[in-house]
Amino acid sequence: MTRASLTLLLIAILCAFVADIEVTTLDPWGELGRMAWGALTPDASVLYTFRNALLNTVTFAFCGISLGIVAGGLLSAGFQLTPVRLFCGFIRAIHEIFWAFLFLPVVGLNPVCGILAIGIPYAGVFAKVYSEIWQEADRRPLRGLPATASGLSRFLYGLLPLTLPALRNYTSYRFECALRSSAVLGFIGLPTLGFHLETAFREGLYSEAAILMYAFYLLIGSLRYWVKPRLIPLYVLLSIGLTSTAIRLSWANLTRFFSYEILPWPIRRQGFVDGSGDLSLPVDQTWTWLVTRFTDQALPGIYDTAILTQIALAATGLLTLLALPSICRHFASPLVSRLSHYVLIVARTTPEYILAYIFVQLWGPSLLPAIAAIALHNGAILAYLSGQHADRIQLRLDAPGRRADRYGFEVLPRIYGQLLAFLFYRWEIMMRESAILGILGITTLGFFIDSAIAEDKMDQFVLLLLVTAFLNMGIDSLSQRLRKGLHISIGSVKTVE
Amino acid sequence: MPPVIRLQNASVSYDRLPVLHDITLEIEDGEKVVLVGPSGAGKTTLLRKLFESVGASAAFIHQDYALVPQLSTFHNVYMGRLDRHGALYNGLNLAIPRRREVEAITPLLVELNLEDKFHERVSELSGGQQQRVAVARALYRDADIVFGDEPVSAVDPRQSDAVLTLLKQETRTLVLAMHDVDLALEHFDRVIGLRNGRMAFDASSTHVARDHLNELFAS
Amino acid sequence: MKPVRMAILLTLALTTAPLAQTFHFTAIPDQNTARLKERFDKIATYLSDKLEVPTKYIPVKSYSASVAAFKNNDVQLAWFGGLSGVQARRAVPGAQAIAQGEEDMAFVTYFIANTSTGLEASDGFPAAIEAHTFTFGSKGSTSGRLMPEFFIRRHFQKSPNQIFKRVGFSGDHSKTIALVQSGSYQVGAVNFAVWEKEVKAGIIDTSKVRVIWKTPTYPDYNWSIRGDADAAYGEGFIARVKDALLSMSDRNLLDSFPRAKFIAADNKMYEPILETAVDVGIIEK
After folding, report:
1. Total tally of structural domains belonging to chain A
2. Sheet of strand C96-101: strand arrangement
């Protein structure tokens, strides 16, 4: 475990040498001051103007997650089959924003785009986590069910009620994530909170940005008061009712996109030039097209994405280790740990994308804002989970009195394995996020994906999307292998995903 | 008439450790049989072996009840007939209990003194109550053969008599494993003694001598 | 599970519902967008009155989203840049440019620099910008990306990444000015109309940022409409839309663009943009 940690750190240090981590803005502190002033002087008057965006944020989340639960639940039934598992891994490996990019040209600027963008990757996650929960269930009561009853009946009366608390826990955690995703989708143009947040940040209207952020925190902080199991079906129906009016799908668009626009340009060129729209297959040119897309975009994108991910991974680990004592009852007074908790809640509630957006405004587009955003968000999550774990430890009476000794010799050794497992578990998520941050001008894969969209080259876009997905799936399987090899596990904690 | 259960030279081992040796056994239709013996003698293993030999249509009362703690008493009892209905009917009954099932299950729960626990989650019940739910489920299955692994171990002595009487009365062929020998002798005609995975005796209860039993339980 | 299943059926049922006959338009978000909706809602009201068809403005976040909206018939009319117009019309057969601003036949990009660089205004291409940091506007902008990149490539015979210390895409012209003024980027390329408007409005601190080069002229912004609009809204509809645009005279409305007035345009006028885009590699041919 020590060796794995040191290797991780060493790789990150090597990456830091070649990484572009310059502050390019001249007056970052002045801008920060203006942001702080905005945070202190929120402009509540705009809330009314933006009420539809707030409503959309919630309705997209509800519709998207419902789709995710249904599709994910069905997929989880076949999760032991390799093709299903790979398929779930694939749809999970593509970030919500990239899904939205894919659907924007296909279904257009309407709620379906946002709902699919949330629902599809969430289906992949639900399929995986639900099937894990079902695998880990206490199966003894199932012996009481007649063996000849149908599979679905046995599921309804056995596995489902047995795992319902775990499923409910995870799903409600995921709903919080869906709200975050829904808000962030606004940054690329969907009519949710992020739409106005982006404008406000971009144009330095920090009092507007502040009230939108506060509204967002309030929305998430108050979830447990208004999202009650009994009310959920009502909310879902209401959400669908509220989004339905703008929904319109054109099959012509769908077929044109999937059977024509995403084909590499050399295949379409002949038919485009002579106006027939026919396809041909010039093998040489298509091959050259593919190779140049790889050398000019995919490889440089992968390089920066990987560099960013590795630095962010190590930074997250270090941040977790630093933050942990401030929230753990063995080191911090109740007051300090309470305050630290609030800081961590804000850090983990704020989506990485928004954090990165703010940091880019402050420091300019280099890897630095991306590293800070990913490490802060993930470090807050891991510190919180590890803190809970550490709080459950009963120290022996004659434990070392000095805090540093107690941390290093009593607490850390007991929780380190799980902490490392959490970290590896989030590796894939960090990479997915690294790719996305390219949209902000940091030259990861997202940068090239965004360029392909801007230049209306759907063939290039889809190619880069596939590269991103496979990169993620690779990291996912590497992380699983490492966790197995190191004999560490995240236990029954599912909210790391 | 041929026996409904037949076992010939059956042996079972776990991890190459033999637990049942060469057991040959026949049980006729309508018989009420009890397996006795010290713990670890192989009662549970033999009972499962017998259950497997007759197929899934039989009912089985598990030693740990095998109830789904999150569901109500009613639903746990209903499970006994899960294979008689399609998934749609079962699903509907899960959401809103069907009147037909409620009417069929209520008398059973009255007999077992559980009528006031009808809607209660099984996890809220005491051990004895949970065990009676497991008995009710086996009876509701309405099977020709019912197996029970210590079906009254957690029920208080006053009630265990009543539960055993009900079990005998409501089933055709009954095979139980019990550690309470006195209770076993009191209720059953045929007693099979097990020791170290072998059959020590197979006799009518009136013919089982104290010596037999002492030998069985001697360490 | 039950309500969820119902919800999906409901959604499917609604997706096939016919489109209400509202006329939709959008505009590329090329400058500060905070009050964009209010500004363009006024244009929507104007068009509703003139066309006697309910008209609605659809806000978008990026140039590419406006092109996608046009392709998908989410909007039938759009205020495009030169490049986004070419992209959109290429993807929608029959689409036509019907109007442009008076300024758009001879549009200009300003290269601007932070005064701390010491770069001075010149008539010829400012070769001294090499090795500085440089920001374009949006990746899909004509005046903020396509034309400046074209002139840069033509002069240096290299790609911007090889010439500059750092290359950025600010997203819009207002942001480009702000970034160069604050020194986050040393040099930038900006739409001259937005620059002039912001100078007049007193938003720009001319002691910190100045124009160092004006590019040769090129055709830029245009109103483009889908060719199937006549079929959807009645014979002669496209001509009526064109009329409505050309007769717009309210300063209050025209300042949203900002243009003195609109004049007639056609697809052919934008061929140079297409050729430039192919040259730079933004459009494949």
Report:
1. 2
2. C55-57, C23-27, C77-80, C222-225, C96-101, C262-264
Instruction: Give the separation between CA C229 and CA A29, rounded to whole angstroms.
Output: 52
* A232 shares its domain with A139: yes
Q: Within this chain, do residues A201 and A268 fall inside the same structural domain, yes or no?
A: no
Q: Which of B57, B79, B90 sits opposite A144 (nearest CB)?
A: B79
Residue A10 and residue A68 in one domain: no
What is the β-pairing status of strands C77-80 and C222-225? antiparallel
Structural domain total, chain B: 2
Q: Give the number of domains in chain C.
A: 2
Whether residue B96 contacts residue B119, with contact meaning beta carbons closer than 8 Å, is answered with: no
- Identify whether residues B138 and B191 lie together within a single domain: no
Instruction: Give the domain-ending residue among B142, B168, B196.
Output: B142
Asked if residue C183 and residue C153 are part of one domain, the reply reads yes
Distance CA B219, CA B209 (A): 18
Instruction: Tell whether B44 lies on the interface with A, counting CB pairs under 8 A.
Output: no
In a mutational test of the B interface, the residue from A139, A140, A153, A164 whose CB has the highest number of chain B CBs within 10 Å is A153
Note whether A236 and C4 are within 8 A (CB): yes
Query: Are residues B157 and B122 part of one domain?
Result: no
Whether C132 and C195 share a structural domain: yes
On the question of pLDDT at A434 being above 90, the answer is yes
Query: Which residues in chain B have Cβ-Cβ distances shorter than 8 Å to A137?
Result: none
Q: Are residues C112 and C99 in the same domain?
A: no
Domain's final residue, options A233, A261, A289: A261
Interface check B90 vs A, CB under 8 A:
yes
Chain C nearest C-alpha distance from A159 (Å) = 16
Pick A162's closest partner by Cβ from B60, B70, B81. B70
Of B83, B112, B142, the residue that ends a domain is B142
Contacting residues of A for C72, CB less than 8 Å apart: 105-109, 250, 253
Per-residue pLDDT in tens (0 to 9) along chain C, 285 residues: 444 454 444 444 444 443 448 999 999 988 876 667 788 999 999 999 999 999 999 988 889 999 999 988 889 999 999 999 999 999 898 999 999 999 999 999 999 999 999 999 999 999 999 999 999 999 989 999 999 999 999 999 999 999 999 999 998 899 899 889 988 899 999 999 999 999 998 989 999 999 999 999 999 999 999 999 999 999 999 999 999 999 999 998 998 888 999 999 999 999 999 999 999 988 887
In total, the C-beta contacts within 8 angstroms joining chain A to chain C are 125
Considering only CB atoms, which chain A residues are within 8 Å of B142?
none
Instruction: Name which residue leads in pLDDT, B205 or A131.
Output: A131
Domain residues for the domain of A106 are 43-261
Are the beta carbons of B160 and B1 closer than 8 angstroms? no
Are both A257 and A402 inside the same structural domain?
no
Q: Indicate the residue among C193, C214, C235 that finishes a domain.
A: C214
What residue numbers bound the domain in which C92 lies? 21-104+220-280
Tell if the CB–CB gap between B83 and A148 is shorter than 8 Å.
yes
- The per-residue pLDDT of chain A, averaged, comes to 89
| Same domain membership, residue A105 and residue A35 | no
Specify the pLDDT at position A473: 94
Name every chain A residue with its beta carbon within 8 A of the beta carbon of B65: 144
CB contact under 8 A, A146 and B141: yes
